[in-house]
Amino acid sequence: MSIHLFTFSDIICRNSILRIVYFAQRREEMKRYNIYYRQDGRFEGRILKEKRGGKRKYQYFFGKTRKDVWDKMDSYSNRINENQYCPKPLAVLIEDWFFCIRHQVKESTAANYRMKIEKHILPSFGEKLVDAIHSDDIYKFIDFKKKSGLSDRYISDILVLMKSIFKYAVKVYHVFNPMNDVSMPKKKAPEIQLLDSKEENQLRQYLASHSDRTTLGIIVSMYTGVRIGELTALQWQDVDLKKRILTVRKTLQRIQCQDGVTKTKLVITEPKSESSKRKIPIPAHVIPLLLKFQGNKNEYLISGKETPTEPRTLQYRFSKILKNVNLPSVHFHSLRHMFASRCIRLGFDVKALSEILGHSSVEITLNRYVHSSFEQKIEYMSRLK
């Protein structure tokens, strides 16, 4: 049996070859990253983190040598790659996400999320693994929902919710976000049918000759611009008749239940945003009508009881009045639009009007709530000389 003994020179030669192979591999690996020499004497590298709507976001690395930067980039890539796997179906991830956000949103918002998730997201993606969902799947989902008759606006609302869910997945599991490359459908502002000036005057004449809590609600909305949910949630403790101030601090709406006993329930919550909490000056001519129906502080303005009138009940009564007066059927919310348009015609400061309406920006007021009638356009054009 012969034993081959390595000489010292053999070992040196072998180590030299290994070093050559090692550094050759390192050079090949370093080609994976873009590393640049900076004017300040340092090296800089970057790795693409995400791509959103055509815009790219990078993670940057700096070091004294090219190797320092490469090591940092390699460590970052390995750490991300180790976690770029989420073996959960989307349905399970959604439950985790919902558990985290449930106390950060209003009960009505949480109920709205649940409805959209159960009705739209889970049937299409619930059983799919999170990291197996790609942008192509999202586009197929959008196309399917469009063909089923959903509006672009409603589909966009669903996609915004999905973005929030996948943002959570990225944060916890570092998976690629399939929503990054998805273009949102353009939201078309819903067309609001309004009464013209002649019809509006006709409605005012009816209100002047009738006096009940429904007409009270219509008049308060016409002259303050409050939303129907805010109106039905108003109690007399929210109305200061001496100072002529109406305080909006809550809203009433019907939401879906999760108790399995009833499908829906009425809830009183905070208004839709911080800007919706506001004080509104009451026009002087509305005060006598309010005094006529004034009750104790816990009574609701519209019901006259310590339990509120449901918004859809008030909408039904409003529709009945329009029918009786032979006016077009418009939504109660149109009174808010009519109020805003009338205020602009009277020369209101837009910023002040925006705050009265409870908008977060004047753009919402101008773009959604201010409507010019054809009669106005004729009047404006006639001023041209």
Provide the number of structural domains: 3
How is the biggest beta sheet arranged? 3 strands, antiparallel
Largest beta sheet: strand ordering:
1-2-3
What's the number of extended β-strand segments?
8
Distance between the termini: 118 Å
Question: Uncertain spans, ≥5 residues at pLDDT below 50?
Answer: 1-6
> What proportion of the residues is helical, as a percent range?
40-55%
State the order of secondary-structure elements, H for helix, E for strand: HEEEHHHHHHHHEEEEEHHHHHH
CATH superfamily of the largest domain: Intergrase catalytic core
**CATH architecture annotation of the largest domain:** Orthogonal Bundle
Number of helices: 15
* Overall mean confidence score, pLDDT: 84
CATH fold label of the largest domain: hpI Integrase, Chain A
Notes on the structure:
With 385 residues, this protein is mainly alpha-helical. It has 3 domains: 8-83, no CATH class; 90-173, DNA polymerase, domain 1 (Orthogonal Bundle), CATH 1.10.150.130; 197-382, Intergrase catalytic core (hpI Integrase, Chain A). Helix content is 51%, strand content 12%. It is built from 15 helices and 8 strands. The protein has helices at 8-30, 66-83, 90-101, 107-125, 135-147, 152-173, 197-209, 213-224, 228-232, 287-293, 311-324, 334-345, 350-357, 362-369, 374-382; strands spanning 34-37, 43-52, 55-63, 239-240, 245-248, 251-256, 264-269, 278-281. Helix 8 (213-224) crosses helix 12 (334-345) and helix 13 crosses helix 14. The protein is elongated and about 105 Å long. The relative contact order is 0.08.
